[in-house]
Amino acid sequence: MQLASEPSISDELRRRFSSARRVLVLTGAGVSAESGVPTFRGGGNSAVWKGMPFDVISSARMVERDLPAVWEWFDYRRGLLQELKPNPAHNEISAWQDRFSEFTLVTQNIDGLHQKARSRDVIELHGSIWRVRCVGCHSRFEILSTQPRAEACPDCGDPVRPDVVLFGEMLPAGVFEQAAAAAANCDLCFVIGTSALVYPAASLPDIARVVGAFVCEVNPEKTPLSDLCDESLMGRAGEVLPLISR
Ligand code: OAD
Known about the structure:
The protein is of the alpha/beta class and 246 residues long. The chain has 2 domains: 11-37 and 86-126 and 171-245, Rossmann fold (3-Layer(aba) Sandwich), CATH 3.40.50; 47-81, no CATH class. The protein has 9 helices and 13 strands. It has a 6-stranded parallel β-sheet with strand order 7-6-1-11-12-13, sandwiched between helices. A hairpin with a 2-residue loop joins strand 2 and strand 3. Helix 5 (88-96) packs parallel to helix 9 (237-244). It is globular. It starts with 10 loop residues before the first helix and ends with a helix. Bound molecules: 2'-O-acetyl adenosine-5-diphosphoribose. 2'-O-acetyl adenosine-5-diphosphoribose binds at residues 28-30, 33-34, 39-42, 55, 58, 108, 126, 165, 193-195, 197-198, 218-221, 223, 236-237.
């Protein structure tokens, strides 16, 4: 039985999906929404932490001014994420990896849920909440969810900070270039659960379009990308993605 709200998958998309060789998937916070991860934007709202807009608390300036406050926000988010599980969208994307001869998953998410769903070689544009980085020597360390995090770098003693990209910071060297190269080489591109407002991530579908790839968006809301895509599937990723391969 088909639900009234289910978007219908075009024959064109089904044909592209069955013949594609090089697939790029770009995900954003919306892919984790059905796991219980709050999005930053969407539904007319914007995330706020203790009265501060998320782009203020998650900023390079705040690391300089008040690193403990930044840690408080990321510790809170890590605590939330610890118990959460991948949802059908993560699982579907993970299954796609073995279906295509070349498959690249690029995420803006720092939550690690794609990896929990067994996706491999995930390109994390904005870093990971499960790593810390020394502000002095730049050594990186994993944080296991069960451990209290270190306050200082075990190598040099300088403070550590979340190994995530904050507003006002550059992406890690080479990471965007790797994603852009995959976008420039793909024949099918999915853009899933992102407001497509944050650059350079939002430029990846444009790169795919320029090289003639078929671009499909999955999002319950319209974004600046919607009218530029070949297909826009308005719905929740965990419900829509399984329909594509069905
Ligand atoms: P946003 O919070 O900006 O956008 C989330 C998008 O997901 C919105 O367009 C929602 O409509 C959509 N959405 C909500 N529920 C969904 C569902 N069940 N299925 C599919 N889509 C759904 O998140 P991002 O676009 O990821 O960066 O934000 C980009 C970056 O801005 C983040 O990586 C983060 C943030 O500031 C940094 O922190 C550097």
